[in-house]
Amino acid sequence: MMTNPRNKSDELSETTKTWLKEKAVEELLCLRNSVNTQPIMKGEICKQDSIDFYNKVKRKGYKRNSVTLEKYGFSGTPDLVGNDCVVKIVTSWDATTFPFFGDEVCKLIKKYGHDWQCRVYMMLFDMNSAVVSYCLIDTPTVTPNGEPLLHKWDDRSLHRFEGKVDAQKRVSTSEVMERDRLIELKMLERYVVANRYYQNYLAELHNK
């Protein structure tokens, strides 16, 4: 939603408009484009393992957060909530997608919008800082349901790290993001615009 449009005369980017249209179709017609890739499945399956690994490496004692807050049209469930900081945990698919270096962490955060996600978390949970931490842990061969997660064409050497790669090198954490009220104001302003477009898309689809 916060992606700026290429044409300065436009209120929203084409990417945002497309996303809003998809949400309108999902709400009115219950037609949802469900994406379930191997990396997504690993992220869901291994979330707790990554949190435990992060706690071990960083010598923390975080418990996984299950509280979802909603405010101003935004909602969010950060993975970890501390006294004044939220932490987003990202489980990397394999060694080729893990950011070993700081500049790679920064690029990935920008690419996938994790920075904006963290700003939503800070606003909702009234926290003053946030970080994103990437974890590289072993990939299970199968899912809890017994479905293959790793296939014969997957290079197992890129998915097995215990006893081979030092744990410290398998956690990459972003620089601390500080809360910025001016940025939050821009987020709220952009939400008003996006919601107007969304309501128009709903009305158009409903009356079609």
Question: Which stretches of 5+ consecutive residues score pLDDT under 50?
Answer: none
Distance between the termini: 26 Å
Q: List the secondary-structure elements in sequence, H or E.
A: HHHEEEEHHEEEH
| Helix proportion | 40-55%
Please count the beta strands (DSSP E, at least 2 residues each). Answer: 7
Q: What global shape is seen?
A: globular
Percentage beta strand: 5-15%
How many helices? The count is 6
Q: How would you classify the helix and strand content by structural class?
A: alpha+beta
| Gyration radius, rounded | 19 Å
* Largest β sheet strand count, sense and barrel closure: 5 strands, mixed
Mean pLDDT: 95
Protein model, in words:
The mean pLDDT is 95. Helix content is 41%, strand content 13%. It has 6 helices and 7 strands; from the N terminus they run αααββββααβββα. The protein is an alpha+beta fold.
